[in-house]
Every structure is written in structure tokens, then in C-alpha cells.
Design brief:
Layout: H1 19-36, E1 39-40, E2 46-48, H2 49-56, H3 61-66, E3 68-71, E4 77-80, H4 85-94, E5 103-112, E6 124-133, H5 138-155, E7 162-167, H6 171-187, H7 194-202, H8 216-220, H9 231-246, E8 252-253, E9 265-272, E10 281-287, H10 291-294, E11 302-308, H11 309-316, E12 330-334, H12 337-353, E13 359-361, H13 368-378, E14 382-386, H14 388-393, E15 395-400, E16 408-411, H15 412-423
Parallel strand pairs: 1-5, 7-8, 12-13, 12-14
Antiparallel strand pairs: 2-4, 3-4, 5-6, 6-11, 7-9, 9-10, 10-11, 14-15, 15-16
Length: 424
């Protein structure tokens, strides 16, 4: 007997029992994007490795440890995308979407990072992402946060998440702070863990985000980024906070919120939860005004976010969701050869006349009792029954499977009208 092949660790199947929650999230997100005037873009899963090295940063954990990178037959270094922003920026530059115009884009899809799999963190994971190009002011930042707040309300998760925000500043002021922070960390190097010592010179802001309890005293005594923020960034951040208050969106300013990617500046934000254990961030983003130019485009400001679908779905599980795709109006039972022939034709006629109707036809034959068991198991509201009597009378018997109503027999010519009156 040959060995059973299993899925790669950290790359999971999404089974029929779970897909209603995924569709619920996707449908609400898609409707929200349409309502706010955003347009979908679909991006390649594989990109040139250099794209991520230049955008994310060569000395980040993602590039150094986590990317799935390989050489193709042309000896080009390619990488399965670990995040969506870089690819979206590359596509916008390459296709001329940023020339003297504003773009509001969204995308969905799988991302890949070779991490140690655990609940809420997988090697193949899925994100919903939004990117806005061409707007300098805080109004774009505000809209993205208000948009996500509305999404939580629609999903019934508003009480399960909270908003944390911060500003990273920009330009010379941030460079000066970085220099001060590196000097402080170097003076306390022996008190830092190995990870923080490695990041101290390459990505010092990430040290501030360390969750290691052994170095919290060092982090708490570090120079405060807010003390070094430039005046323009402070004004930007103040306007953001004012608008959130006006729109009654509660938030906490978290001075240690820095985000893990090199390209962020000014506004950063995260929606976090206590419902998922260690993996508490369900949506995160911020402003990245220099990335377009860094990747070869013009100097175009940008802001965006990414939402982790697995984590949001984990919060949705157990909550009531309306899965339109899973609705099953009827199950067609056909007993006998003549009934099968007429039943197949009837089913196709109903699907032509009523595109919204969900109708499952019995396949594989079987007696009446077995077919009734299948109908009940399918979750259908009705069983449409065609047997010898129905064939002779050109009718269909209708049995209510979820309601206490008497069985009816309806002429096939009137069945469409009956369904429209009772279900549409």
C-alpha cells in the first residue's frame, strides 16, 4: 500500500464546514469596498525576490528567515509573496496607475511565510488588503480606520476588537531619533536578548515591540519616539485623533506600536483582540509615503492595511452567519426511470426560470426512503417528489422538511409561480 500524502505543515485545507465563515467575511468586505469606492486588483502570487528585499528590508525576519524563495529555470530568484503591499505598489508603477491620479485599491489572496505554525499563524495564510495612493493628508488614514470599524460592526465583532494607533514621524526627526535609540540600546546591549541585539542596528524600532518580559525595563526606559516627532507629523497625528473622536471610534495611543516592516512612516495602527491568545493582531496598517519612490516610481504618498482572514474567521466561528451560498431551498426526489428523465428536465427548467433557486437533485438512484434521508441530511427546506403518480398527472409533490405543513401536490406548470410567491 502506498503512503498517504498529507498537506504541508502550516498549509491548511478549508473544509465545507468552515467556508460559510470565509464567505461571510469576503462578502461583507467586498460590499464595503464597493460602498467606499475602492476597486479590486488581482496580483501574482510569485514576484521577483528583489521586490521584497527592497521594500520589506533585507535585515527583517521576513526576508532573512521566512520567505519561500527559489531559482526558476532561467536562474531568476523568485519568491512566494509574504505580504501584499509590495506587489500592489509594483503593479501600480508598472501599469501606470499612479501618474497624476489617486488610486483606491483592494485585493485578497494567499500569502506565504516559513514560520513555526501555531494557532493564528500559518505558512500559507490569507489576507484582505487595501492600498490608497496619491493622498498626503490624514483623511485617507482616517477613512481606512473608519472603514475597518464599520466592518467589525457588520461582522458582529465590534465588541471583540480594540484600536491602537501611533505615529512614527518622518524625515530628519525620525533619523535623529533612530540614532539616539541605537546609542541607548548599545549602552544596554548586555541586558538585551539575542533577537534585540541583532535588530539593534538594522531595525532598532522593532526592539521596542519586543514581548520578552526580561527586557521590558530596558524598553520602558528607552527614549520616547513621540519626543522626537517632527511638527508636520504631530499635526497629522493630532488631526487623525480628532477625527476618530468626532466619529466616536475609541482608540489607545500605543507608543510602542512600530509595525514590523521597514517602509512605514507617520500613522501606524492595529486592531487587536484578546480572543485569540498570543496572535492578537487581526488587522494592521499605516502610512508608507516613501515606498513607491523606493521601488522606482515617483514620489507618491500611500497608506494601507492588511486583515488576517484566518484570525477573523476564528473569531467568527460559533457566531450565527447567513451563508447565502449554502442555502438549500429544495431536494429533488425521483423514483423510477420515467421520473428520473422528467425530473432532470424539470430541474433544469427551474434553474432557467429561477436563477436564485438552490435545488439539489438526487444522484445515484435509491429507493424513496433512502432519497428522503438524503433530502433531510442536505438541509433543504422542501423535498420535490416525482414518482409514478406525479409522472402521470404532470405534477410534483412538495413535502416540507423544516415546517409542520401538510404535503402538497402542484402542477408543474404552476410550480415556478408557487416558488416565487413562497420563497422570493
Amino acid at each position: 500500500m502506498s503512503k498517504t500524502i498529507q498537506a504541508i505543515r502550516g498549509m491548511n485545507d478549508i473544509l465545507p464546514a468552515q467556508t460559510p465563515y470565509w464567505r461571510w467575511l469576503e462578502d461583507h468586505f467586498r460590499d464595503l469596498m464597493r460602498g467606499y469606492g475602492y476597486h479590486e486588483i488581482r496580483l501574482p502570487i510569485v514576484e521577483m525576490t528583489e521586490l521584497f528585499k527592497r521594500s520589506i528590508g533585507e535585515v527583517t525576519d521576513i526576508v532573512e528567515k521566512e520567505m519561500y524563495t527559489f531559482l526558476d529555470r532561467n536562474n531568476d530568484s523568485l519568491t512566494l509573496r509574504p505580504e501584499g503591499t509590495a506587489g500592489c505598489v509594483r503593479a501600480a508603477i508598472e501599469n501606470g496607475l499612479l501618474y497624476n491620479q489617486t488610486q483606491k485599491l483592494w485585493y485578497a489572496g494567499a500569502m506565504f511565510r516559513h514560520e513555526r505554525p501555531q494557532k493564528g499563524r500559518y505558512r500559507q495564510f490569507h489576507q484582505l488588503g487595501v492600498e490608497v495612493f496619491g493622498l498626503h493628508g490624514p483623511d485617507a488614514d482616517i477613512e481606512l480606520i473608519l472603514l475597518t470599524a464599520r466592518l467589525w460592526r457588520r461582522l458582529g465583532l465590534a465588541g471583540d476588537v480594540r484600536l491602537e494607533i501611533n505615529t512614527l514621524g518622518a524625515g530628519e526627526a525620525r533619523a535623529a531619533y533612530r540614532q539616539e535609540l541605537v546609542a541607548y540600546l548599545a549602552a544596554n546591549e548586555q541586558r538585551l536578548d539575542e533577537d534585540s541585539q541583532r535588530r539593534m542596528h538594522s531595525n532598532p524600532l522593532r526592539v521596542l515591540d519586543s514581548k520578552n518580559p526580561d527586557i521590558q525595563d530596558v524598553i520602558n526606559a528607552a527614549p520616547k519616539l513621540m519626543d522626537w516627532i517632527d511638527a508636520e507629523s504631530k499635526q497629522h497625528f493630532t488631526q487623525l485623533c480628532d477625527q476618530l473622536q468626532r466619529n466616536k471610534v475609541p482608540y489607545t495611543v500605543n507608543p510602542r506600536l512600530v509595525r514590523g516592516l521597514d517602509y512605514y512612516n507617520q500613522t501606524v495602527f492595529e486592531w487587536v483582540t484578546d480572543k485569540l491568545g498570543a496572535q492578537g493582531t487581526v488587522c494592521a496598517g499605516g502610512r508608507y509615503d516613501g515606498l513607491v519612490a523606493q521601488l522606482g516610481g515617483s514620489d507618491v504618498p500611500a497608506v494601507g492595511f492588511a486583515l488576517g482572514m484566518e484570525r477573523v474567521v476564528a473569531m467568527l466561528e460559533g457566531k450565527p452567519v447567513t451563508d447565502v451560498a449554502a442555502l438549500n431551498h429544495g431536494y429533488l426526489i425521483m423514483v423510477g426511470e420515467q421520473a428520473e428523465q422528467q425530473g432532470i428536465m424539470l430541474a433544469e427548467m427551474l434553474r432557467d426560470a429561477l436563477p436564485w433557486l438552490t435545488l439539489q437533485s438526487n444522484l445515484g438512484g435509491g429507493g424513496f426512503k433512502n432519497q428522503m434521508k438524503r433530502a433531510d441530511k442536505s438541509g433543504a427546506k422542501l423535498a420535490f417528489i416525482i414518482g409514478d403518480d406525479e409522472c402521470q398527472q404532470d405534477a410534483v409533490s412538495i413535502k416540507f422538511l423544516r415546517e409542520d405543513q401538510a404535503q402538497q401536490k402542484i402542477s408543474r406548470s404552476e410550480l415556478v409561480n408557487w416558488l416565487q410567491e413562497n420563497f422570493k
